[in-house]
Amino acid sequence: MSNPMAPTSILKPVETFVDEPSDLELSGGSISFANDNEELKDEAIDSTNPTGEITLDAHSDSDDDDYDDDEDKGSAGKGSSTEDEPQIDAKEERAVVASKVLVAFVLLVSAGLLAFFSYYYTRTEEETEFQSKFRDYALEIIRSSSNNAGNSFSVLETFSRTITSLALFSNHSFPFITLPDFEVRAHDFQSVSGAEEVAFAPFVHDKDREDWEAYTVNNQQWIQQGLDYEYMVSIMGRMVHDEEEHRNNGQTPSTIAPGTNMEGFSVLNKAKPIQPFIWKHAPFTHKAIPEQDKGPLVPVWQTFPAPRNSYVVNHNLRSTPEFSALFQMSINNRTTVLSDIVDNFKLFGTAQTISVDPKSVVLQPICQGLHDTASGIVGFLIVIKKWQNYFENVLYNGAEPVIVVLRNSCGKAFTYQLVGPQAVFLGEGDLHDIKYTHMRISSPFAHRNVQPECDFTIDVYPTQTMEETYLTNMPVYVTMVVILVFVFTTLVFILYDFFVSKRQRKTMASANATNRIVSNLFPKAVRDRLIQEMGTTDADNMSVVSGNSGQFRNPNASKKRASTAFLNISLHGSSHGKKALKGANSSEALRGGGGTSEDIFGSKPIAELFPETTIMFADMVGFTAWSSIREPTHVFLLLETVYHAFDTIAKRRRVFKVETIGDCYVAVCGLPMPRKDHAVVMCRFASECLSKMDIQVKNLEAQLGPDTGDLSIRVGLHSGPVTAGVLRGEKGRFQLFGDTMNTASRMESTGMRGRIQISRETAALIKTAGKENWITEREEKVHAKGKGELQTFWMVIRGGSDNDGASVVASAADPLEGDSMHQVNDDMECAPLNGDGSISARNTFVNRFSSKILEVAAAAKKRRLVEWNTEILGKLLKQIVVRRAARRIKKKQLGLYGTTSTKEPAVDISFDQVPPSGDAIEEVREVISLPHFDPKNFAKSVHPDSIDMPEAVLIQLNAFISRVADLYQGNPFHNFEHASHVTMSVTKLMSRIVNPLQVEAPARETDKLLHDHTFGITSDPLTQFACVLSALIHDADHPGVSNSVLVKEKDPLALKYKDKSVAEQNSVDLAWSILMSHEYQDLRETIYTSEDEFQRFRQILVNTVLATDIMDKELGAQRKARWDKAFRAGSVSVSRSEHSSTVHSSCADEVQCDVNRKATIVLEHLIQASDVAHTMQHWHVYKKWNERLFCEVYQSYLDGRIEADPSVGWYKGEIGFFDFYIIPLAKKLETCGVFGVSSMEYLGYAEANRREWQDKGESIVQEYLSKFKTDETT
Fold this sequence. Notes:
By secondary structure, the chain is of the alpha+beta class.
């Protein structure tokens, strides 16, 4: 028999993944956590389970004593009240048998019915899905092919305007025009549109013919230039092809001969002389003969690809019937013309290959002028394009194949098969499967003009392959499963009945015997108390693993024991009976403090030494600063998303997640299942986590706002022995102890952003595994706390990239600590920026190629910021619509978006087209009237998520924000990223407005309390929308210098706005003019539907944007006077005469006027605080934006726009800015009493940043200056 007091081994794991995080402790080099929700299985999971994960805490429900007790309780009420086993008479037996037969019959009938309906429902669902998916494909094909054609026509029209612009700019007259770099422009157009050939053919009148023929002979050098360009493109293409083949497949460079394209045709040619006269094909012989027609003639001039034999030049296309009809149609309609399907041999082609795919000619007229629509046509751009190009890239990768039949009214038909993004020409005629004729979806092909009587139509049909994808044998399988389930259920029912009856008899006999024994040992009162305590002990033990050491199936078989130990361990190490008998002694030991764990739990501790493990610490860099300006839900959304991705990787790679410590992720490989390749596996896991982190934060930036995409992780790995065990007590805890834990933590803390640092021990294991190319030795040694100097290694990240899209660049001499930003990003703060705040290619340390990567990454970041701002403002738009409905505005005035399909009448908002009178500064109001609160209608508001905003409104909102983003110039500070940062602060403050629900009041009064407490701001989403929008536009087109500089320089903007709030008024006017354009009418109709709403929207926008001009003394004095009047009792109000003509106030109701005045000044201070929110946020956020502002001002100094060197007074200036503006502003947020904890948070950060700047500011300014000068000289 096994000894119940023997130590328990935990050599092998339970291979079950732990999803939920647990409580974590870090002390003395150990990690511990508790998880109360795991289940203990009766049998061990096979050690070959591919998941390789571990169950931390397990709870047993398989104890034999528990099972017996439950059976006793389950049968207690079924027998007699005596201690003898109950007897069932014959009548009850027959009733039980009859009920069993009835149950079996019901099961059989239910099985048949459910099987039938399961088959019918599943088959119907498949057919519906098939038809729905095909319809989606067909509509997408029709829409996208039409869009492809439209885009091609638009690009072609732009190309024609380029030729016209050249003629106007060069003062050359048609037809004597040769477009410089025609081959480059045509090649770009070809890449965009998919055209096979492009040609330029001018009109040549009879009077110009001789001059033209002489001109073409003297200017035919474009042919050789085109051939040379093709040769260069061919060489570059071959090099790229060789490099990709070698990198992807390890193949040797291709044997393609120099000067040939991928198809093997020669592109290295010498231009041949052209025909010196305009010619046409001779009848029958097709030889070139002089054109006798007086014209006007349309000779071919420049072509791409360049002609291999130059006979095509000066070919009069008007002599060809096919082209003649197209020219006439284009001249009549003055627009792009699309031809019928054209025979390959009737084209003017210069290509070396002949394709059998259907083609058409696209004819674009070239006008003599750019803007005069009545100007004459002086030539044509002629494009030959395969129809296949219109159907490419319209479906996504993996899409099932569909058939597209292109037919026209001339009786021609051509069939294509679309497989994902590829379109394959199958042949001439309608080749679709006739059994799918009834599913045809047809649509006219969207085009401009087509040859008469040859309109095109697109017919889309499914394929057999697509049908087989959706119409499967699943209905049959489902039916069979249903039948088998019912058969199995019936068998289980019969078997269960047999064992229950047998078990009941045994249980009753055992219960009676036990009762007699207990009754003989204890009096009734003591017996009842023991039974009660036994139940309490059992209930408590459900929160931890319970059982006994006898659960080990084979204690002598080490392999079996190792794989089942975590499942079958006993945290208390004794049977329930033993625990009950020792409970009193254990309690006394706990109270006296003299008992050991063996005395307390009845067994020895459960622990094991794992000699070969690798531990990973991964810490988020920049997380603390990032989280300090986010809502708690956003912080947890980021952590849950990233850590869930890490958990998924860990499950796949059989890595054991230990715990998360704040934003630090801890994992181990090599326990509880020992493995020799633990270091290699952990390196792969760490590398994949690093890549996944970059992907996740990029995807989340559109949802969580600016700087999310800049987050990364710093990873440290160390290998060595570790002690692991279960800490028994209130909650079972799995812990790791030992020096390996401490060293792994030091590897992370001394590492760098976006890199994996490994110890010498781990590096040795990697080398032993033959992976020495994975690592590179760190140039300098690191100093680790408690370890001294250590030689470490970097793991080489293949294809890794930092958050800016460029290769990871880190200085080994400057390790990042805590939440410091990446050194590379810090170095780039002073670099010239694009309009969205991204890094410009000028004056950076990167080369031209790296700059291109940065531009691409910056554009992607700009798109993410646009999407994020769209989401923020889109939510507020929904609230506007909902609140408008609550006020019972008539539908014809509302445009409310419900579920009805009836098109609503358009809203008349023509009043918004009246331009504002005077400058924006003249519109500043002392009091902006907000709507009154109507509790009855307010209660009828629906949730904003319950309505669907029209797609047109969202598209226009996105387009408007994109236009605003484009307004921002390339300033280091005043850029689109800064505007988004201000928007985020405004949104956060709006969401943190104090909720008076904390005040005890009836439910119907809480909305009124919220309205009154926040001066009506929270009950008017239009006010919130206008305030957020003003944050987005407040620095649009900012010139990068202060208003005073613009005034001093007598800038045109300063003259325009009379030297008052120049940049701010300009921002308002630019954004307003965009919003008022016709293309955003749907958006405006959603924002406001009445003149009152329009005026309130305009007033809030003007007041809040101009409030960001904190240097205008007059506006500042007015705001201070309004603040004193609103929030300081007994203060002297500024008389009306003391206000300039730019401030207006008119209130009939003084009480309501006072509330509106408070709302107005709160909104102004809200955006003022948000505009400088970086000073009231985490130190790293403040330092980042302060450095950008310094760079912007210092650049102005270097450009000679300001006289004083800003670096001289920057340190003291920041202290004064904190003392006289930032901290008083933060206190005002607290004084107004509507922002809750945010006001205290902002004030706390402002005071902390002020103290840290006072301590470090002088050295930081020198650091700024050094970085700036380094960027300038690099």
